[in-house]
Specification:
This protein is mostly helical. The protein contains 15 helices and no strands. It is globular.
Length: about 325
């Protein structure tokens, strides 16, 4: 096969699901996925070895997140994504919308804080450094909606509608950097919204929903812009290889449809997760109040009744 200006295979046969899912491991992402799974697994084993529990659902969610990254970057999708806009958009959406949600549901930061040993008084180990990072000014900035929402939007419009995208696609290093960027943007955008792991920015549930819906319309508009265009807009994908058997404009329209769809589906999943968290939080709060009432004989209610009685007495006086 020949290599094009991107430094990757361009003379590929027509895309099929089987060819797209065939293993073709990118060494950078393959190594990262294996390391992430190993570290998470070791942390879970450490907790269980000392008698602590860790929800199986979180482990499943994290593993699914890592596997979604491997699916996007360690299969034929990574080869076809260099020459087909639609396949590239699948990679982008998985890395920025699907994988971050699943990884965050796995609560890796919480797991690390529980599994890492304390270094001792006056010393700083990995756990202390992680705590310091979570409380740092840097983390307060990069997880604040004033930063995450514009970054989320710029990763679409500022990348695809400028020459930057073609520059990054022109080299293997640039392509990897772009994909890592997509994953990082998704993580910092959804981290404060999901609210599973501790972090410096923890708004209430209503505000989290507003943050979620503040970024999603721009995703939909981006997809619609691609679908409505009358000519190919991205130079990298303007002249697909004849071996692919595709039309550049049709492929771009498909890419726009994928971007539009991914602005809806993950939003619904996150919204459901938020509603479940909200309900669970309210249930825990109610149970705490019931236990407190049992301990003190419902002193809070008695005090409130006494307050009402005092108001009534003053009104009579």
């Amino acid at each position: 096969m020949d290599h094009g200006g991107h430094g990757m295979l361009t003379e590929l046969p027509p895309f099929t699901l089987g060819r797209g899912l065939a293993f073709s491991g990118d060494p950078v992402f393959l190594a990262g996925c294996l390391v992430a799974l190993a570290l998470y697994g070791l942390a879970v084993v450490r907790l269980r070895s000392r008698g602590d529990r860790w929800p199986a659902g979180r482990t499943v969610a994290f593993a699914a997140g890592v596997l979604s990254i491997a699916l996007a970057m360690c299969t034929g999708l990574n080869d076809y994504g260099m020459v087909m806009f639609s396949v590239h958009m699948v990679q982008h959406m998985v890395l920025s919308m699907v994988a971050p949600i699943l990884l965050l549901l796995g609560a890796p930061v919480t797991l690390a804080l529980r599994a890492l040993p304390a270094a001792g008084r006056g010393r700083k180990g990995p756990r202390e450094l992680l705590v310091a990072l979570l409380h740092s000014r840097y983390m307060r900035v990069v997880t604040h909606p004033a930063f995450t929402i514009p970054l989320f939007i710029a990763s679409l419009y500022g990348l695809y509608f400028t020459p930057l995208f073609d520059t990054l696609m022109g080299s293997r290093a640039g392509h990897i950097a772009m994909m890592v960027h997509f994953l990082g943007v998704g993580l910092v955008f959804f981290w404060p919204i999901m609210g599973v792991d501790p972090g410096p920015h923890r708004p209430g549930y209503v505000m989290r929903m507003l943050e979620l819906f503040a970024g999603m319309p721009f995703h939909a508009f981006f997809g619609i812009a691609l679908m409505m265009a009358s000519e190919p807009m991205i130079r990298t994908f303007q002249h697909p290889s004849a071996s692919l058997g595709i039309d550049a404009l049709d492929d771009q329209t498909a890419a726009g449809g994928i971007a539009w769809a991914f602005s809806e589906i993950p939003s619904v999943l996150v919204l459901v997760a938020l509603l479940i968290q909200w309900y669970t939080s309210e249930q825990r709060h109610a149970r705490r109040k019931d236990r407190a009432a049992d301990r003190d004989g419902d002193a809070e209610l008695a005090a409130y009744n006494a307050y009402l009685a005092s108001l009534e007495a003053r009104g009579r006086g």
